[in-house]
Task: structure prediction
Amino acid sequence: MLEALGRIVAIVPAYDEAGVIGRVVDEIRSFDAAIDVVVVDDASTDETASIAQSHGAVVLRLPHNVGIGGAVQTGFKFALAEGYDTAVRLDGDGQHDASELGKLLAPLDRDEADLVIGSRFVDPGGTYRPPLARRIGIRVFARLVSTLTGHRVTDTTSGFLALDRVGIQLFAAEYPHDYPEVEATLVALKSGLRLAQVQVEMRERETGSSSITFVRSLYYVVKVMLALLVASLRRYPRLESARR
Amino acid sequence: MTPLRISIVGVVASALLILIVLELIRGRRLKERYALLWLATGAVLLVLSAWRDALNTIAGWLGVTGYPPAVLFAVATLFTLLVLLHYSTVLSKLTDENVELAQRIALLEERFTRGEFSDEDTSS
Result:
């Protein structure tokens, strides 16, 4: 079904995920063996890189920890340099279920979108129930981005996404370095990319801890608010949507 | 009591600081991460300049009886020190990372000149 998508790369940022990274790589490869898996190891202190490699992934090892946004962007730059037509991005902690990749790729396959976000909130009956504070945060950011762009965005904090060549180009050139998802959604919409959102379920993380700890949540909220405010004042060149 | 003129100058100066910082971020010459302390500085100075009763009250607590605007200078100095200290930690981290990068490049270059990569180059 995926021939129209050309060569596909899966970008998996990982920091100290030795416990699950092998399974994450295996699941992507068992979804479709033709997908190349690239694990971007953000200077892990454990065996993340060698385990990913032994499971058949290409591993990009960063010399020091650059944060989730910088790590993911390394993957986008790789995808651009190696001429991939389509990229998907999944977290290295296993919370994104590779068996849902079909749903994520479908709008790209039909050429209806340049960026597809796996959202937990498209369908009100979804089972994802985060703690109250996080739920409020997710809702506020989604509302803010919707207001600033005029598009209804349901889940701006999701890192489960698929991109066509235009999306790869944009994010290879422009991607925030820390807590990137919210601002990246705004930048994509302001650059004229066609956005699609599909309902996905996410798993509870099994090992490691969320990059957003309680202590950092204040910085997270203030930084993202500031970035959104300033980015909405910026002008972005509009990119031509891919036409196959 | 804080003279009105000092209050006005304080408001204008701190508002200008905030605007300059925002414009620097917009022009991508300043990252949000390093702008937050500057914005906090601007906001605190703006509030203390505009809200003269608060400035007088704080001056009273601190025992500054003669000239309440002195508290503005004290606060501005404190925040400047904080920003500088923050930058020192950032600089230290950058120094370490820079050394790490130089070392990685030296090792890669040595492998490269030894011809370790040439086999893969020709076969692929």
Helices of chain A lie at 21-31, 48-54, 67-81, 101-109, 132-149, 165-173, 181-190, 217-233. Chain A touches chain B at residues 63-64, 177-178, 219, 222-223, 226-227, 229-230, 233-234 (CB under 8 Å).
